[in-house]
Structure formats: structure tokens, C-alpha cells
């Protein structure tokens, strides 16, 4: 099975899987609770989309201004965006996928702009160690004698 055929199969089978899972859920917990689940997941998805859209805008602004973008922040924000889209689609399969992606993005910690991108320039670089040091002009044999 080629990649295009597999993708077509997934695209055409997803609506049937969603419908089947919703019918099973309605049979198990009732129509009212199923509709409430659909409404709650849709509203949660819209709320996440609204927040992640702002975050993605901020990150793309940073991409335009800085030469060293934070890919971790980009992937986390894209995770929130994809989770929001999945939660907006009615059905249990996409809700489950959306919640898994949302949980993964949330477990990476709260989103904060990178300290380098908050208006101050970091001239030293991200991997600079600071501290006091002393330059000593000694040969290796002198160093070994000092350690004893």
C-alpha cells in the first residue's frame, strides 16, 4: 500500500469511525451527555485555537526579528494548534488525538517567550559560561607536582 493510498483510506474511513464511535457513546451514556461532550470539546478546541493563534503570531514575529528561533516553542505552539483543530472536529477519535497532543504539549511546560527574545539582546550567546578564572603558565609536570 503506497503512502497516497494509505492517506486516502484514512481520510475516507475517519468520518465513518467518528460516526460509529459517537453512536456507541450515545448508546452507552445517552444522547444528552454525548451532545454535551461534543459541545464541550468544540468549545475547548476553539479556546485553544484562539490562544495558540496568538502564540504562533508572536513566534513568527520572533522568527522575522531574530536569527536564532526557538524550534521547541514553535513545535509546542503547533501542537496546541493541531490539538485545537482536532478538538473542534466532532467525534471521539479526533478528540482523543487532540487530547493526546494537548497533553504532550502541556507536559513540556507552560509557554513563555525565550529570554533572548524579550527585548534585550544576549551578546554573550546562549552557551557562554561566566565565572572567575586564573591564567597559569605551567607545564603538565608542574601541575602534577602541585596536585600531590
Structure description:
The structure is a single chain. With 148 residues, this protein is mostly helical. The protein has a domain at 13-113. The chain has helices at 3-29, 31-65, 71-88, 92-107, 140-147. Helix 2 (31-65) runs antiparallel to helix 3 (71-88) and helix 3 (71-88) runs antiparallel to helix 4. The longest helix is centred in the N-terminal third of the chain and has 35 residues, at 31-65. 14% of the residues are buried.
Largest sheet: none
H/E element order: HHHHH
Give the overall shape, derived from the CA principal axes. Answer: elongated
Fraction of residues in helix: over 70%
Please identify the structural class as seen in this structure: mainly alpha
Chain-averaged pLDDT: 80
Number of strands: 0
User: How many whole angstroms does the radius of gyration measure?
Assistant: 26 Å
Distance between the termini: 70 Å
- List low-pLDDT spans: 117-122
Classify the beta-strand content into a percent band: under 5%
Provide the descriptors you would attach to this structure in a database record:
single chain, 148 residues, mainly alpha, elongated
Short structural description:
The chain has 148 residues and is an all-alpha fold. Helix content is 70%, strand content 0%. The chain has a domain at 13-113.
What layout of secondary structure does this protein have?
Layout: H1 3-29, H2 31-65, H3 71-88, H4 92-107, H5 140-147
Helix pairs in contact: 1-2, 2-3, 3-4
Amino acid at each position: 500500500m503506497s503512502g497516497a493510498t494509505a492517506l486516502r483510506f484514512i481520510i475516507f474511513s475517519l468520518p465513518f469511525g467518528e460516526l460509529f464511535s459517537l453512536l456507541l457513546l450515545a448508546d452507552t451514556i445517552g444522547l444528552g451527555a454525548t451532545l454535551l461532550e461534543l459541545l464541550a470539546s468544540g468549545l475547548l478546541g476553539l479556546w485553544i485555537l484562539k490562544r495558540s493563534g496568538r502564540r504562533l503570531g508572536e513566534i513568527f514575529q520572533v522568527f522575522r526579528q531574530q536569527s536564532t528561533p526557538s524550534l521547541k516553542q514553535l513545535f509546542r505552539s503547533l501542537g496546541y494548534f493541531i490539538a485545537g483543530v482536532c478538538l473542534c472536529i466532532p467525534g471521539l477519535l479526533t478528540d482523543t488525538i487532540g487530547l493526546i497532543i494537548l497533553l504532550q504539549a502541556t507536559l513540556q511546560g507552560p509557554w513563555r517567550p525565550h529570554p533572548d527574545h524579550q527585548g534585550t539582546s544576549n551578546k554573550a550567546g546562549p552557551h557562554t559560561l561566566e565565572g572567575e578564572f586564573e591564567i597559569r603558565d605551567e607545564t603538565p609536570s608542574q601541575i602534577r607536582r602541585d596536585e600531590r
